């Protein structure tokens, strides 16, 4: 009853968040006792192979049993996630140990990482983590990084919302050490244990972020960022409330994702379509404001 090991070209497609649900087994010695739900091996990313999870929910907190991690990505492996949900694990929801993880339109929430840094995501061993149009909310880490923890490599966040996370030490939202961080159109606010904490990291912010009490050394703050002392007003679905300062304050060029190019190891901009915009300009964060009906 070990994890599902994916080590070559494979795409698993579910019916959507909350419809295709993976839960821990009740069998003795099942994966929930000692390992992740999915393990992504180095064959993912070799040659032209593509390994992808789409439209599934991994909900770990069921009947007192929990997965250690929902997903573990091993060194040199690559994984794309789209439209997925991860919740309830007893360590980091996603553990990236030197691989490349690219996440779109996903929701990682309500994880209490009892034995690890990085409640939602832990990025180690010079891993690459890219998060696009996704929500990281209400997670906690036992030490640093309630939402995201990275001790090396690269982290890129675009069109995302990181709120309501807690770290016992530093970086309630994100903790970055020896890591290159890029951010665009992202909300980083309302976290406990400081919203953002960095050590030995160069942080070129690409603009149009809402940052609460973020004081980063060695950083380039684009003038289009909102540097705030209070969280933005969001509803229970993480959409801006009427009057929120993030409404119509996103990139005028529209929603642009980050994308990792395997051939040269670079992160590039990828213009995206399909995100509904309720006025002429995108909002900051993962969810758009919806005006009340007239």
Keywords, please?
1 helix; mainly beta; 8-stranded parallel beta sheet; 1% helix; 9-stranded parallel beta sheet; 294 residues
In short:
This protein has one helix spanning 31-34; strands at 4-6, 10-13, 21-22, 38-40, 51-54, 57-59, 71-73, 78-82, 85-87, 94-97, 100-104, 107-109, 112-113, 121-124, 128-132, 135-137, 140-141, 148-150, 153-158, 161-163, 166-167, 174-177, 179-184, 187-188, 196-199, 203-204, 210-212, 219-220, 226-228, 256-261, 266-271.
What does this structure look like?
It is a single chain. With 294 residues, this protein is mainly β. The protein contains one helix and 31 strands. The strands form six sheets. The chain has a nine-stranded parallel beta sheet, with no helix packed on it. An eight-stranded parallel beta sheet has the order 1-4-7-10-14-18-22-25, with no helix packed on it. The longest helix is centred in the N-terminal third of the chain and has 4 residues.
**β-strand amount:** 35-45%
Helix percent band: under 10%
Number of helices: 1
Structural class determined from secondary elements: mainly beta
Biggest sheet: strands side by side, in what order? Answer: 3-6-9-12-16-20-24-27-29
Mean pLDDT: 87
The main sheet comes to: 9 strands, parallel
Which shape, going by the Cα principal axes? globular
Low-confidence sequence ranges = 26-33
Oligomer: single chain
Separation, N- and C-terminal Cα atoms: 54 Å
């Amino acid at each position: 009853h070990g994890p599902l090991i994916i080590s070559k070209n494979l795409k698993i497609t579910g019916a959507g968040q909350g419809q295709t649900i993976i839960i821990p087994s009740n069998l003795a010695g099942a994966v929930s006792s000692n390992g992740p739900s999915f393990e992504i091996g180095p064959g993912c990313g070799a040659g032209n192979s593509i390994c992808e999870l789409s439209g599934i929910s991994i909900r770990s907190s069921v009947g007192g049993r929990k997965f250690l991690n929902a997903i573990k990505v091993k060194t040199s492996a690559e994984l794309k996630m789209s439209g997925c949900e991860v919740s309830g694990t007893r360590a980091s929801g996603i553990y990236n140990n030197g691989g490349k993880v690219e996440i779109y339109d996903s929701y990682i929430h309500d994880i209490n990482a009892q034995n690890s840094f990085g409640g939602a995501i832990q990025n180690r061993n010079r891993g690459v983590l890219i998060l696009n149009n996704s929500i990281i909310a209400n997670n906690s880490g036992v030490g640093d990084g309630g939402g995201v923890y990275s001790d090396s490599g690269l982290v890129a966040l675009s069109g995302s919302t990181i709120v309501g996370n807690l770290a016992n030490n530093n970086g309630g939202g994100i903790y970055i050490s020896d890591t290159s961080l890029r951010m665009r159109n992202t909300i980083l606010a309302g976290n406990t244990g400081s919203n953002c904490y960095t050590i030995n990291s160069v942080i070129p912010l690409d603009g149009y972020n809402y940052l609460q009490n973020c004081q980063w050394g060695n950083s380039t703050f684009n003038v289009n960022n909102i540097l705030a002392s209070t969280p933005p007003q969001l509803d229970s679905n993480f959409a801006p409330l009427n009057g929120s300062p993030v409404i119509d304050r996103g990139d005028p060029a529209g929603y642009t994702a980050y994308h990792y190019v395997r051939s040269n190891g670079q992160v590039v901009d990828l213009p995206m379509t399909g995100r509904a915009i309720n006025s002429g300009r995108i909002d900051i964060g993962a969810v758009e404001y919806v005006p009340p009906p007239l």
